[in-house]
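Look at one record.

>
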Amino acid sequence: MAHVEIISFGYLHDSPPPAHVTLDLRHHFRDPHVSPELRHMTAHDEPVRAAVLRTPGIAQLVTATAAAISAFAAGPSTGPITVADGCAGGRHRAPTFAQALADQLTANGHTVTVQHRDMHQPVVNR
């Protein structure tokens, strides 16, 4: 199995980091930022994780991304596989997705590291 590096980030803070697979979660998945009670929370908070993971399509995307990573790992090249997943601010959707993907990949036998590049950033006013 491969070593997988997952980096969550916010597009509103900086460009996506270099990665083999980059996922843009901004346009197809509900943003917890729109809920005033969740806006100042992060993926460290259970209500945010629950809201993101309940979003239609997220579980399927985690499964599909894990399958894509396994395909990369089956190739003849060695070395880590980097996945970058981004949302607007990097505090809600992206880090929750990153952890769900890490959990799935770990269950599949991969070693995984997760970095949340922008989760510590202040809430973006928009």
Remarks:
- Helices lie at 36-39, 46-54, 58-74, 93-107.
- The mean pLDDT is 95.
- Residues 3-116 form one domain.
